Structure formats: structure tokens, C-alpha cells
Amino acid sequence: MTGPVLGPGSLSAGRWPAVLDALVLTDDRLDHYRRALSRPDRPWARLGTVTGGVVGPGWLVRRGRTLHAGVTLADGPAAFRLDGPAWTRVDGVIPRPDEPGVTRWAVATAGGRQFALADEDGSVFCYHRRDGEWERDSCLRLADPEPFVVPGPESVKLAQITGDRDATPTPWGERARTLSDSLAAAGVRGTDLGVRVDHAGRTFLLFGDTHWTRPWLATRDAIAEVLPGDPLPAVRFHGSPLKLVGRAAGWVTMREYDVPLDGFSSGGRLYGFFSSNHFRRRRVMGRSVLARAVAADPVVDPAARRRPLRFEALCTFSDRHFINTSAQLRPAAAVPGCGTDGDVLLVWGTGPYRASELRLAVLDAAALGRLSGRATRDARALGVRYWAGGGWSDAEADAVPLFAPAALGEVSVRWADAVGRYLMLSASAPEDPIGPAVVLRTARQPQGPWSRRIRLLDWVATGMSLDPHTRFIRASVADDPVGDRMFRAQAGGTGAAYAPYLFDAAVDGEELVLRYTLSTWNPYQVVLMRHRLEIGHLG
């Protein structure tokens, strides 16, 4: 356990505009962070440093609209005031809040809502009060003390999957065609995610908030089919979006953050997990919904402009620990405590977006059989069970984290038969010691133990390379030839990498060759990546 980085006065709320301000101890300095409360998805941003030479956590006081900070220096207490973007030392002393013992949290009230900032062994998480309980809603800093592995060459981009032309120009000024030619073929300008789902001998990709040439479709999600190609596959988009129908799961929204999460094939039918009800009760993603494709053999047709591919919503799967999900069918005999008959569906999940640990649920053969019946509002009627540490429980509240600390959102878990392991891809967390990265963990059992983290890609160093002919993430808001202007919130900023989803894995000699999809924000597209990893690094 590290020394405290927070104290009882380290968090303060402002009304106009509605913001949270925080002081966090970093080595011997106090850093100032701010989070806008206008939307639940607003992240924490580090605005600057109050001062160095401090010997403990700081505290904040608002006097009118002016923010003051109290700090303890080696020679005693000192006061600072925020003047514009900078902190200035001023005369006097800022009274310190009462501190009964060593307190690693701070509470503030904004807009009638209570927020808390918690120091969890150096990691800093924000919570809000909901229905009388504290629920984590964001991560300011992840402090993972476990060493991570950097095994060698970074992942490389193979091709851009979506959009019109590749965002990265060639040295001779041309831009390669994308794997889908989605703009001309299906009217898809740009999208994200790209989750692979296999069904009935076919391979599909599920995409998230999609921007179409028909603006009335807003950000409805998309589906595409993967076709054989050499050396890279071709991708064929359906010309209409995905659509969730039916009211068994209540009112299902289909706008931003309401996206396909994963899918699976069972009993000759295609199923999908979807997030829904974004921003409800101050959650970025409100819940997950389990749905079944209406057509047993979905037709993917780029020319189908008025024929959405429909899924029937069967039930709410979770509004707690499994809001983002990744699913994998496995033989029951290969999963502890699941018997020996038939297949089971393993579902790994995270709760509040990019602020959660990983947990595990299972639908056994009987539960999968119930999916072919009538829809139900309650997933408990299916017989979902949750990994409780030493076995399975019927209560989602008993689901335990598989490792910590973590601040996960999208996750992708697949069984790789060639190496006898589960592979999990995720993105790193804010101020994570592993850096801005795509991260791999492995395990021989679905509940773990999971290996230490393996960094596959530093997306700033590689994705934002100084070379514009290899760069595939916009690195500058001015005169960067890489990027696009898909919508207002995206057009004026740089890019980022998120949502890595495993596409396939194969063994080549002593190496495991992984391919995965990756979203880049600006350009608002999906790329196909490859990573060659020595099998000895898998742990």
C-alpha cells in the first residue's frame, strides 16, 4: 500500500459551470484535475500543477468563483489561488478539513448529486451516489504496480477496413482502397468497433455508432460480412443499419453509445449483446440487452437501403457488472463447475464504462436452450450464473473481479486453441503506467489466473508516428493529412485508439500471430492490425 494521494478536502464541486476539481499527490507535487459534469462521458483532465515540494495531500476551498488550495510544504502550510490557467501562491492559510486518521477519499456535492473521489492504493476512482449506494463512474488514474511485458516489435496496421480511401497517404500521394469500400458500396462514411462473430459457416463484423450518407439514420449501428481474400479479406457492408425490435427488454435506445458488444451462434440462430439506454442515471452505457437475429440466415446486401437487419430484444442481460460484454462458446467439460454435457456460453463483463474490473458469467446448456423460447424481461429466468471466486452463484452481486486494479470498458476475449489459452484484448486506462496502449492478457481457465499485461501497441508512438506515410491516427489538429471530419465532436481534435477486438489467431513457428480490429476516433474508422508475439511471452 502506498501513502495517501488524497485527503478529505481533495475534491471540490463548482456550480457554474458544473465541474469537479481535484488535487492528487504525485511524488512530491500536487496536480490539479478537472472533470466537466455536462455529460457522464466527460473524462478527467490534468490542468496543471499547484506546486512541488509538498509532503502530503492537498485540499480545496471555493471562495465565490475562485478556487483556492491548501498545501503542506516542508516548512509548513501554504495557500495557493487559481488565476486563469495557473496557480499563484498567496498570503494566509486555507483551513484544513477535519481528518480523522488517514482518510483516502473526499466527497463533494454538485447539482444535487453526491460524488466521491477514492484513493485505492494509488489508483484514483470517482464514484457517484445512486439509490443509496456508491457506484464507480470514472477513473482519474490507474496505478498498477505489477510489471508489464513489452515483448518486441509493435503491432502493425495491415489495412483500413471502413470508409472510402485509407486515411494514410502513400509517399506518391495516393490513398489505398479500404477493405470494404463502404462509402460507395453501402453508404457508410465512418464507424467504430468491428466485433467478429461466426455463425453458420459465415463471419460477420458488428460495428458501433455508424455515420451514413443518409443523415436521418443518425448513428445507427452497422453489420458487415467478411469474405475470403488474398492476402487480406474483403468486407461487405449491409446497406441498412441494425435494428432492435420487440419490447420484452423494455424501451431500447439506439443512438450514441448504444452499440453491439459481441455475438454468438447457438441452435442455428445468431445472437447479439447490445448496450442501450446511454446516459440513463448518469451512466455512459445504461445496460446490456441480449437479442436474437430475426432471420436465421441474415442476408448482407450493400444495395439494401431500406431493409434493416433486425434483432429481437430478448431481455436485459445486466445493468450492473456486465454492461460491456465479450462472449465465447466452450465445451462444458472445459469450464470448471459446468458439468460435461454440451456447450456453455462464457460471458466476461465490465460495468461502468472505462472504470471497471472484469467479471465472469456463464449460461449452461440448459440456459442456452431457453434462448430459443419466448423473450423475458429478466435474465435470471435464463439461469445465468456468476463466478463468485470459489464457484458459481445465481446472484450477480456475488460476481467477483478476476483481477485488480482495472479501469476497463470494451474487452475482447477469445479461446485460442492453437496455444491452449484465453486471450483478452483491452485498452489501457488513464495515466496508466503501461502508457497509451493496446494490452493483452492470457489465462488457461476463463476465471484466471490472468497473466501480467503484455503491451502490443503504444498507439501514440506508433499510431501517431512522425512519418505521415505510416501514421494512421491524427496527431495534429493543423495540417495533418491523416484524419477526417466525420462529426463536430470528432472533427476538431486528434485521434486515439480504443476498442481492440480479436479477429483471429494462428501459430507460425515459435510465434503467435494475432490480428485484431482497432478504432481510431480520428479518422473515425476501423483498421485491421497484426501482431507477432513469441509464444514464450504468453505466461
Descriptive overview:
It is a single chain. Strand 30 and strand 31 form a beta hairpin. The two termini are 26 Å apart. With 539 residues, this protein is mainly beta. Helices cover 4% and strands 43% of the residues. It has a 5-stranded mixed beta sheet, with no helix packed on it. Strands 25-26-27-28-29 form a 5-stranded antiparallel beta sheet.
Give a brief rundown of this model.
Helices cover 4% and strands 43% of the residues. The chain is mainly beta and 539 residues long. The longest helix has 6 residues, at 365-370.
Describe the secondary structure blueprint for this structure.
Layout: E1 11-14, E2 19-26, E3 29-36, E4 45-51, E5 59-63, E6 66-73, E7 76-83, E8 86-90, E9 105-110, E10 113-120, E11 123-130, E12 133-141, E13 156-160, H1 182-186, E14 188-190, E15 193-199, E16 202-207, E17 211-212, E18 222-227, E19 234-237, E20 242-245, E21 260-266, E22 269-276, E23 287-293, E24 309-318, E25 324-331, E26 343-350, E27 359-363, H2 365-370, E28 385-387, E29 392-393, E30 412-416, E31 421-427, E32 437-443, E33 454-458, H3 459-463, H4 488-491, E34 498-508, E35 511-519, E36 526-534
Parallel strand pairs: 20-24
Antiparallel strand pairs: 1-2, 2-3, 3-4, 5-6, 6-7, 7-8, 9-10, 10-11, 11-12, 13-36, 14-17, 15-16, 16-18, 18-19, 21-22, 22-23, 23-24, 25-26, 26-27, 27-28, 28-29, 30-31, 31-32, 32-33, 34-35, 35-36
